[in-house]
Amino acid sequence: MTQKLSAVPLWQDRRFRGAIFNFFIYAILIAVGAIILLPLSWMLTAALRGEGETVFTVPTSWFPTESFHFENFARILTYESYPLWRPTLNTLFLVTLNVIGTVLSNSLIAFAFARLRFPGRDLLFRIIVFTMLLPGAALLIPSFLLFNQLGWYGTYYPLWVPAFFGNAWSIFITRQYMRSFPRDLDDAARIDGCGYFGIYRHIILPMSKPVLTVLAVFTIVGVWNDFTGPLIYLSNSDQFTLAIALDYFRRSAFSTMSVNTTNLVMAASLLSVLPILILYFFLQEYLIGGIASVGLKG
Questions:
Q1: In a domain, 76, yes or no
Q2: Quick one: which of 226, 78, 82 has its CA closest to 159?
Q3: Residue 261: inside a domain, yes or no?
Q4: Which of residues 259 and 111 earns the better pLDDT score?
């Protein structure tokens, strides 16, 4: 004889309540994401407007009144007063050198502090950590005087050479990550005939990809958005990076044309942001995983 199962009310079903909870969570996340993307969407619609078409309207106009002008993005790269293709290449040049210098120097220094034993190691590491207490603004004048005495003013050297000498914060997190590896790996590598550099190259460096990815991404974002450094050390407009060129382009565009050129300024600003968004889109898995692993292993 079969026994009939009593019907469970829908609101008491665990799966139903879980679905309702997930619905509200995703709805909140979508709403917050839309609010965060509002400035970017306004920048996009402003960049697609025609010449002389104002973007500062009340109420806000989200779409061009006539048509979408996608040619604005091509115009700014070859703008007659100040084309932005050269500053973009200058910035990519500095980004490449800084990434190479940051990853190479900080990984080597962190390897020495994490895997080698030598007199004064802990004292030297404490001194490096203490330098993190110095604010960056306090170092601007001494750094400028030093680079000026070296004859580097007006060159790219002050903007990429320091990357090859390590950074306190980068050394700290890389060293903490490398310390989490078992020492047995080093002993096994020595038995196989590896020296210190062999251990670094074949054992430690491949295992440190998460933290090195974090360093590389942070370096790219920092150099790409750097305004103070190029403003202080560069004097020739042909050497300007993208951050400096955007301000120069804004002043040049508004001074040489009688019509409203906000659309071109917004197009230039959007193109400057786009590479960072693309970088994060493709590296978000490695970036988030790297930050999490650094926090857990450090």
A1: no
A2: 226
A3: yes
A4: 111
* Structural domain of 131: 85-297
Task: Record the tokens describing residue 15, joined without a space.
Answer: 């799966």
The domain total for the chain is: 2
Q: Which residue has the tokens 């071109």?
A: 264
Residue 189 host element (H or E): helix 184-191
> Which carries the bigger pLDDT value, residue 283 or residue 204?
204
- Which residue, chain included where needed, has tokens 């509200």? 24
Indicate if 66 and 92 belong to the same structural domain. no
Tokens of 101: 């210098």
* C-alpha to C-alpha distance for 94 and 104, rounded to whole angstroms: 15
Two tokens, residue 135? 């604010």
Tell me how crowded residue 274 is: count the other CB atoms within 10 A of its CB. Answer: 11
State the pLDDT at residue 278. Answer: 85
Give the number of residues written for the chain: 298
Residues 182 and 66 both lie in one domain: no
Q: Treating both helix axes as pointing N-terminal to C-terminal, what angle do 168-178 and 209-224 enclose, rounded to 10 degrees?
A: 170
Co-location of 233 and 122 in the same domain: yes
